[in-house]
Design a protein that fits this description.
The chain is of the alpha/beta class and 239 residues long. 37% of the residues lie in helices and 18% in strands.
């Protein structure tokens, strides 16, 4: 068995992940937002690599049931109904709706994993349930890829820490699991912080969100096991 971690999707080519089990992690905030939306009754989330693509995808769907959501530089995209805050994904806002979501880092990472099987969406918010699903996928496939969204094409501490915690939990009790260098580094990185809150709040992304008046999103994302939903991405839809 083997676990690979990629700290950004940079360098991935089309087909690299075809048929491989994948977990996509963008803790601040896309994966937390997707999990919250589906837990609160959204029908599906469609990730878009850009705002323009989101508008185009939404135009092909029934307008009554579609909500455009997304951010640029942490703030809601002008003309979109929702931003990328998990706190916006209330049952009243998203229940029964299809959310077309465009974010700086998370949705491009999701689009890059198209073809993986399964592609799961993970964060502290669904961690316990995620571990069970990821472990089952590892046992079935013999390998697991943890795809971190990163931040501005670089390493993101909150994603790397979550990847390390996931590896530690998934491989517990399994005698032999091979790791790539990214997975080894992520595992070691878990010793740098005592809690989810400490790891997330010390990150550059958290500082940027605080400057934008969105520090509460960081606190929301740092609370583990809020939900038991483990979103699955296939055929350009997360359900």
């Amino acid at each position: 068995m083997r676990i690979d971690v990629y700290f950004t999707p940079l360098g991935l080519n089309a087909g690299d992940l075809t048929g491989r089990a994948v977990v996509v992690v963008d803790v601040l905030r896309a994966s937390t937002t997707v999990i919250t939306a589906l837990a609160n009754g959204a029908k599906a989330v469609i990730p878009a690599a850009t705002a323009e693509e989101a508008v185009r995808l939404a135009s092909n769907l029934e307008k009554d049931g579609v909500v455009l959501a997304g951010e640029r530089k942490s703030l809601k995209i002008e003309g979109f109904a929702l931003g990328n805050s998990p706190r916006e994904m209330t049952a009243a806002a998203v229940g029964g709706k299809t959310i077309v979501l465009a974010t700086t880092n998370g949705t491009p990472a999701l689009v890059a994993t198209q073809g993986g099987d399964p592609v799961l969406v993970g964060a502290p918010a669904n961690f316990k349930a995620l571990v069970a699903r990821a472990r089952a996928a590892l046992e079935q496939r013999g390998e697991l890829v943890v795809m971190c969204a990163g931040r501005d094409k670089q390493f993101a501490a909150e994603d790397g820490y979550t990847a390390g915690r996931l590896i530690k939990a998934v491989k517990k009790g399994i005698r032999k699991v091979g790791l790539n260098d990214g997975a080894t580094a992520a595992l070691a990185f878990t010793d740098a912080f005592a809690t989810w809150t400490e790891a997330l709040e010390s990150s550059e992304a958290a500082h940027q969100l605080a400057e934008a008046g969105l520090a509460e999103d960081v606190r929301f994302a740092a609370t583990p096991d809020r939900f038991t939903v483990v979103p699955n991405y296939a055929d350009r839809r997360i359900t």
